[in-house]
Specification:
Elements lengths: L1 E5 L6 H12 L3 E3 H11 L2 H12 L5 H12 L8 E4 L5 H13 L6 E6 L2 H9 L1 E4 L5 E3 L18 E2 L6 H15 L1 H8 L3 E5 L4 H12 L7
Parallel strand pairs: 1-3, 1-4, 2-3, 4-8
Antiparallel strand pairs: 5-6, 5-7
Helix pairs in contact: 1-9, 2-3, 4-5
The chain binds adenosine-5'-diphosphate and adenosine monophosphate.
Length: about 220
């Protein structure tokens, strides 16, 4: 299964990516996670990306594309992957098509998580992420048993710098101008499935798995 998740920031892509990737036994590739790991390690890539991320802007396509090209060439991505947060622009989508064509494969599906803006603002404002395993929690909607501590591995939870109100507003604008055109791009190619991403996390996961079932390759 070669799958892309799209949807506004806060739609639940990272949350669902983990469950869907496990269900289909494919690696979850999150460009946001890769950038954040590079920022925290102070790598040259992280230094390039940080200012854009802090403002809620997109990291330039050339930087992002090189990074994804390398990641997709790793062995674990040869037989399938779930992309979370890439592509985020139409030029990135073209490059993804080209990268896959070079190795003679195609995307199977693009799953759009559909959520209203008011709800994504509530979700982003209360998001907490585990510093060690990147698991995503929410202070009200999906709280850990002990405040500030990840149930899964005891890691400290942090509030992302780009989840502050002014940055959230910019990210939603960037989504509308730069990323939303991907919806038509993939709809025209017959790859898009729109998914109601409201309601409890488990319900959304079940809806996603049901929507993907007809596409499952023989396994
Ligand atoms: P994205 O990767 O699309 O930016 P996340 O998966 O990080 O979004 O989710 C954003 C926030 O919303 C997180 O705090 C997460 O716990 C919460 N969340 C995710 N799915 C739901 C849901 N179905 N209902 C309520 N909150 C959710
Ligand atoms: P995310 O974790 O998906 O919310 O991404 C966090 C930030 O990383 C975004 O606001 C961008 O600054 C950057 N980023 C992640 N993926 C991409 C991408 N495909 N293209 C450009 N910037 C990206």
């Amino acid at each position: 299964m070669r799958l892309v998740l799209v949807g506004p920031p806060g739609a639940g892509k990272g949350t669902q990516a983990q469950f869907i990737a496990e269900h289909h036994s494919v690696p979850k590739i999150s460009t946001g996670d890769i950038f954040r790991a590079n920022v925290s390690q102070g790598t040259p890539l992280g230094l390039k990306a940080k200012a854009y991320m802090d403002r809620g802007d997109l990291v330039p396509d050339d930087v992002t594309i090189d990074m994804v090209g390398l990641r997709l060439s790793e062995d674990d991505a040869k037989h399938g992957f779930l992309l979370d947060g890439f592509p985020r622009t139409v030029p990135q989508a073209h490059v993804l098509d080209d990268l896959l064509a070079e190795v003679g494969v195609k995307l199977d599906v693009v799953l759009e998580l559909v959520v209203e803006n008011d709800e994504v603002i509530r979700r982003l404002s209360g998001r907490r992420t585990c510093r060690t395993c990147n698991h995503i929690w929410h202070v009200d909607f999906d709280p850990p048993a002990v405040e500030g501590i990840c149930d899964l591995d005891g890691g400290a939870l942090y509030h992302r710098d780009d989840d502050q109100p002014e940055t959230i507003a910019n990210r939603l604008e960037v989504y509308a101008s730069d990323t939303a055109p991907l919806i038509n791009y993939y709809a025209e190619r017959g790859l898009l499935i729109g998914l109601d991403a409201t309601g409890p996390v488990d319900d959304v996961t079940q809806r996603a798995i049901d929507a993907l079932r007809p596409l499952q390759h023989d396994q």
